[in-house]
Each structure stands twice: as C-alpha cells, then as structure tokens.
Design a protein that fits this description.
Layout: H1 2-10, H2 13-28, H3 32-50, H4 59-66, H5 81-91, H6 93-99, H7 104-116, H8 120-132
Helix pairs in contact: 5-6, 7-8
C-alpha cells in the first residue's frame, strides 16, 4: 500500500500507461493452463463426436464397460461418487473444473446422470446444462 502511494505521487497517469501495457498480458496469461485443458478436452470431445453413434452397441465397448474399465468414449460404470470424481478429473479435466464449482445437490445430479449413461459426451452435456441453469 505504501509502495502504491509512493508510486502515485511519483508517476502521473501518463506514466502509468506503459507500465499497465507491460503488466496486463502477464496478468491475463494466468489462466493459460486452464484454457489449454479446456481446449484439449474440446479436441477429445470433437474426436468422439466423429465416432459413429452406434459405438455404444459395440460388443467390446459394452464388455469393457461391464468390467468397470474406462473406454475411449465413456467412464467405467458402477463407480461410487468419489471414484467417479477421480475418473472425471483424469478423463475430462475441463469438465471436472466446471463440476467443482457445483454445490452438493448439483454434483449429485451429475453423478445420477453418469449412472444412467456413462458416455463422456453425456456427462459433459449434463455439466454444461446445469452450469447454464437449464436443469
């Protein structure tokens, strides 16, 4: 605070402009890792959307999911809520970052949605709908 007062006395607003122009990109770049995570997840989601919609009926995907394994397009089925959150954090970090903002009731809604359909796209859609207030 004392430093700021000294700087205000010493520098006029005209002299602050170059300093702000130099500091602003550093402050704005603080969320780059978060944005990169979301971008990576978006790329994964886009790749999954290209996959044929009949993919859930593939015998190998269904068999792997029945064994509790995470496949390319879905989380393992039958996880408790803590394990679900861990798998969500590992598989969909951007969606998990949004999920963390929810209260307990909304987290429970996402977990119930996962229990009915464990596809990544469905879980992400549920989080987005809850975030936008559509549910």
């Amino acid at each position: 605070m004392l430093l700021l007062t000294l700087l205000q006395d010493r520098y006029t607003p005209r002299r602050w402009t170059p300093v702000l122009l130099l500091v602003a990109p550093l402050l704005l770049g603080a969320d780059d890792s978060y944005l990169r995570e979301i971008e990576e997840e978006a790329k994964r989601q886009a790749a999954m959307l290209i996959i044929d919609q009949a993919a859930p009926s593939r015998p190998e995907a269904t068999a792997a999911n029945n064994k509790g394994e995470t496949t390319a397009d879905r989380l393992a089925s039958g996880l408790d809520q803590a394990a679900f959150e861990q798998a969500l954090r590992e598989s969909l970090p951007g969606t998990y970052a949004l999920y963390q903002q929810f209260d307990t009731a909304r987290k429970q809604q996402v977990y119930i949605a996962y229990q009915s359909d464990s596809r990544f796209a469905h879980i992400s859609e549920q989080v987005i709908q809850l975030l936008s207030g559509k549910l």
